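Team,

Forwarding the record for the chain on the shared tracking sheet. I've put the sequence and predicted structure together so nobody has to dig through attachments.
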Amino acid sequence: MKREVILTADGSKTIYIPEMNENYHSTNGAFQEALHVFIQNGIRTFNQTGEITVFEMGFGTGLNALLTLVEAVNSNRKINYIGIEAFPVELELIQEINYEKLVNEQFTESFSLMHSLPWEHKHELNNKFSFQKIHAKIQDYQPINSSADIIYFDAFGPKVQQEVWTIDVLKKMHDILKPNGIIVTYCAMGQMKRDLKSLGFKVEGLPGPPGKREMTRAIKL
């Protein structure tokens, strides 16, 4: 599958897949989208003390993981990150994207390690951030129930990857979450929101990132 690095409107880069006509992030701003959806309207909504566990559906370029690492350091709280990815991105493209320069070059080594460390193992990148990536399709993954506080649902859109937006996958996300845990996604598809409600989530439509009217946050009741 051919991948190309392209520039987005906020000056950050993303990856474009010609055969799918799909991007890894919004062309209106990759960095702004990730920060708005997963950090500002995601992990920053947790006010309790203690460790937080993040499960990301779609590790991809590692941008969300990098921003979560920065958040852990800046907020001085421990975050455990787990990301699942079926089709890892080539290291040459990761180096070309160069996301660490958008936050602080002190994170250069950590961002490199995210992509070079062995899969399936938990790694302590520093005393505030543990990291694990899983090489598998979500349909084949057997998670630990009630193990995550928040899910970043950042798969490709339903139009090109419909198989990961099914109620069966969303049920797996429900099972992964602890009670009162949340799932956040850039997607605002009506069927997805109806499915989340049927699974026992309280669903919120929130203002989206630049170029998108709405995003979704759902709380496991």
